[in-house]
Amino acid sequence: MAGQLPNWENIVEKLNSYVDDVRKEFEQMLGEIVEVPTISMDPSYKGEIEKGADLAVEFLKKFGFEAKKCQTPGNPVVLGSYITDPKNPTVAIYNHLDVQPAGGPEWVREPFKFTIEDGKYYGRGTTDDKGPALTALFAARFAVENGIPINIKFIWEFEEENGSPNFEYFIKNYKSDLKVNSVLVSDTLWISPQKPSIPYGLRGLQGARLVLETGTKDVHSGTTGGAARNPIGELCQLISQLYDAKTGKVKIPGFYKDVKKLTDAELKNFLASGFDVKRWIQVYGFKSIRTKNKAEILRRIWAEPTFEVHGIVGGYTGPGIKTIVPPRAEAKISMRLVPDQKPDKVFKLLKDYVKKLNPDVQVIKENSLEPYYGEFTGPYAEAAVKALEFGFGLKPAFIREGGSIGAVVTMKKHLKVPIVFIGLSLPEHGYHEPNENFDWRQASGGMKTFVKYFYDISQIK
């Protein structure tokens, strides 16, 4: 019958046994999905994306869910559903199963060969976001099999790492399948192994390429140097006019105009989050940073926009020096945005300013993601706090997060329901880094956390 809640003490006893019993099954399934290289930004991996989506459907069906592969103009989205009773509330759980590219000398293990060492799971996608996705699936199976009165849907995207260009198409075309009361997202980082976080804000993103062509071929720097324009040098000069690389301050006129002011209460929460500057420096391997002031770091990484240069391409890059003036150069840049900045407006500001500074530079628009700002109070936020305290015995902090998840903004726009973040990844897990990993401690605690969350939100009216 809808709404009947089983005794929590009985649930806990069964849950502890369940988590112990499913470890091997969890590891086997995680290994299967990790060894499918679902790299979304490289079109040559389209076959692997389809293979990964088929495997995801198989996993859901194996756990008793209805499941289908929803086609879009790009990569598919896998949708799973388990209806315990139409009268029960419904939660949608969002994860992504596509991954970043991987490889190179810094990887000490094959990135797409699943490896278990001392309770750690190595491989691209283990923490971002295949491990958390499967953790939620194992928790969902337990919940529905043990009478928790909640309906559960899974939304597994395969284009998140590529900016979610077709997620809105999916939402619009499958809206009849997405009648839910709330959304749970598990694709975020803790502050440290001893401090979970519940983000309520995400930065957006506007990417661009700056391209300058001043010739048709490499030319001799002795016979042409001094008169020939050097596109690499000019792009470096342009970049220095767009932002101050030493301070991070963006110089584009109007760039900061729409930035939502950080409140005193938010900053107080940030400072009480348990963030440790020395540990943060160590985890990310920095030799030096722009400031060591804790409040200033937290403002910069969670609540302020940025301008970053990801790469400059052009000229000779082999051993030694080749004395040429190159004909072309390209800079790959992006700007992380915060509420209430709009990607289109920021891109226009960039393009107009570049045209003023160097009209020969092409400004080519890349991926756009809007920033997200949600609530950190109310019954769903309270349920998330209680869930993490139960699953890990740790009190979480409410923070904003520096990364971007395009699908979240789309779900907020179209589904119009509360969205809560319960991430399981740690800074040590290596999001987007070589030697990415996940671990059983986070998976087992995560299963308990999600079950507690489902139990509590099943009673929210």
UniProtKB/TrEMBL annotation:
Gene Ontology biological process terms, A to Z: proteolysis
GO molecular function per UniProt: metal ion binding; peptidase activity
Pfam families from the UniProt entry: M20_dimer, Peptidase_M20
Name of the protein: Acetylornithine deacetylase/Succinyl-diaminopimelate desuccinylase
Domain (Peptidase M20 dimerisation): residue spans on this chain: 200-360
Coiled coil regions in record: none
InterPro entries hit by this protein: Cyt/Met_Dipeptidase, Peptidase_M20, Peptidase_M20_dimer
Domain of life: Bacteria
Taxonomic path: Bacteria, Pseudomonadati, Candidatus Kryptoniota, Candidatus Chryseopegocella
UniProtKB keywords: Hydrolase, Metal-binding, Protease
